[in-house]
Amino acid sequence: MKYRKIQESMIKPYETSLVEAEKSAATIEKYLHHVRQFVARYAGRRIDKALVLEYKTELGETYAPSSANAALAAINGFLRFWGFDDCCVKPFKVQRKIYCPEEKELTRAEYVRLVQAAKEKSSERLALLLETICATGIRVSELQYITAEAVAQGEAVVRCKGKTRTIFLPTALCKKLRRYAGKQQLRTGPVFVTRTGKPMNRSNIWREMKALCTRAQVAPSKVFPHSLRHLFARCFYAIDHDVAKLADILGHSNINTTRIYIITTGAEHRRKMETMRLVI
What we know:
The protein has a two-stranded antiparallel ribbon. The protein contains 14 helices and 2 strands. It starts with 10 loop residues before the first helix and ends with a helix. It is mostly helical. It has helices at about 10-20, 25-40, 50-60, 65-80, 110-120, 125-135, 150-155, 170-185, 200-210, 215, 225-240, 245-250, 255-260, 265-275, and strands spanning about 155-160, 165-170.
């Protein structure tokens, strides 16, 4: 084995393998972030199971289990790439939550206030962007596939994480998108673009959404593009109750990921328990 000690030069070949495996840009950056930290911490050290276990302990003492496991997944992938399968470690055991913290979940009423706040700020683009994500359940990185052509067809073909899926656009949303595209003279390409004509990115959208919090009276901890995707999932599941179908719509490979999206809030969970009336 060429590499028996951890070296910075091991990172680039691993990055190339992630690109060749057609991992998304966001996934690659996340994995490399964790790998770089690991390599910086142990550069020059001989690779063995004890060393990785030591790092796992440090992660467990510093991060929440879910965050620590994300780092371990990246490091295990790095080790397997270099043939050190015997050095991989198990993730931390995490009990699945039966309800989500209310301070983190965006409600339908809060979503409505955010859209209204965007309109009051004369930001038609932002208001429509919020409605588009929430009405379709797409990822913020998939907004680029909401094009003038997709609006004309009433559906968007989304390519993400090596998978292709078709997203239907509600009639009312298509009507708004067509009107907006017409006003902006957008006849082709992405509907949501910056002043320079480039597709809006995650940081642009995140910043504009956060600016609505005070006016909409919504806690900043709830206002993220992904919160809209979660709200779509909960609303869809409340009607359909088909988690497998919802997983396909959201583009999830693992149905357990979808289950995270549809857990209820603590207050709702408590209400259900109270209605059982099992205390005699």
